[in-house]
Amino acid sequence: MKDILTILKYTIKENITKKAFIITTVILMIMIIAICNIPNIIEIFENEDTVAENLKFIVIDEEKIIGKDLNAITELGKAINWDIEVNTTNTEKIIEKIRENEIDAMVEILKNEETGMIKLKYTSNGSMFADDYTMSTQFAEMIKSLLVNKELINSNVGAETINLINSEIEVETKYLDDENDNFGVAMVASFILFFAVYFYGNTVAVSVSSEKTSRVMETLVTSTTPTNIIIGKTIAMGIVGLGQMLLLILTAFASYKLFIPAELDIVSAMIGKINFSVTSIAICIIYFILGYTVYAFLNAVTGATVSKVEDLQSAQTPVALIALISFYLAYFTATVPDSGASKFASIFPFSSAFSMPGRILAGGATAGEIAMSIAILLATAVVLAVISIKVYSGAVLHYGKRLNLKELLKLSREK
């Protein structure tokens, strides 16, 4: 036990003090903070593009179509940061001011001679690609609002009724699929756990192969047993990986709360649908530990079979294929959590760590399925750990040609 703790401390210290680990962690934290600040960055650029002065418009009603009620349009304009002036000045002078950019646009209130309906003539210095269509449409809405209010008042309609007519209608959208379909939660959980389980397990293989290349392994083997080495390294890299992941999650949580505007907060609604409880979180941690154990021991063996770090990638191909196939099985079946394929992914030991936690958080797994899944994953982890320790013990001091599967099985029987 003392030797395991010594290797554990050594491995943790060695990895968390590496420049690559520190730089990667810092870069990921900066990226998370930057992503959460995207709405604020967009707002800054939008504010820079917005002219400090109000947009200036002149409205002309020579035919007195709306009359004195038109003066109310200036108050409507202030609500959207528009400076609107009701004027009867000669239109040619106003057009000249538009050309000189003293005024943004002129709006003339006219009558269509054929239909007798009101029409607006919008004159600006812009082009067909400018925002003039939007602004002219807003003017039409304001003029229409004034006319409607005028007619309502003339018809002795009460102020309360007029306010009710002019009030905005609140729209609340409800998606029935959201009540029973939380596959988005399952897919996100599947991705996070795959990243954590596989990539942190991969660091075990890198650590073992690096120490073999530098001959550090020979010193370690003379000081303790290969069994203590593989167990100590597996636990140590799990702690390092879990610590880094928790740091990134905390950074993401704090950045989201500090920088994301309330009107853009969509994550809170999603989290509200997740089956969060002490039990569900504890079960998810168990799946992480067992899933990490399976892949960490497999990666430790691949690291022990090579003599040079350069050969590690090819040696890891079988483990990488198993992990990728298992991940895609869990990821794509998450869209149909009640299907047979999804239930199989939740029980199959190499994919259950990626699939079942998402189903648990989405509330789509029964107690019987969870118990069966954990039992199979635990049994697989124990069997693989025993086999991996035996193979590792025989392969860790092997140098030269990379060991093949037949030779590894022979080593496991000998040990």
Overview of this protein structure:
The protein is α/β, with parallel strands linked by helices. The chain has 19 helices and four strands. Helices cover 67% and strands 6% of the residues. A four-stranded mixed β-sheet has the order 2-1-3-4, with helices on both faces. Helix 9 runs parallel beside helix 13. The longest helix is centred in the middle third of the chain and has 34 residues, at 226-259. It is elongated and about 100 Å long.
Average pLDDT for all residues: 78
What fraction, in percent, of the residue positions are helical?
55-70%
Could you give a short account of the major beta sheet?
A: 4 strands, mixed
Order of helices and strands: HHHEHEHEEHHHHHHHHHHHHHH
Number-wise, the strands total 4
The radius of gyration over CA amounts to 34 Å
Q: What is the general shape?
A: elongated
Per DSSP, what share of the residues sits in E-state strands of 2 or more residues?
Answer: 5-15%
Helix segment tally? 19
Numbering strands along the chain, what is their spatial order in the largest sheet? 2-1-3-4
Low-pLDDT ranges: none
Counting helices, strands and paired strands, the structural category is alpha/beta
Would you kindly provide a brief summary of this structure?
With 415 residues, the protein is α/β, with parallel strands linked by helices.
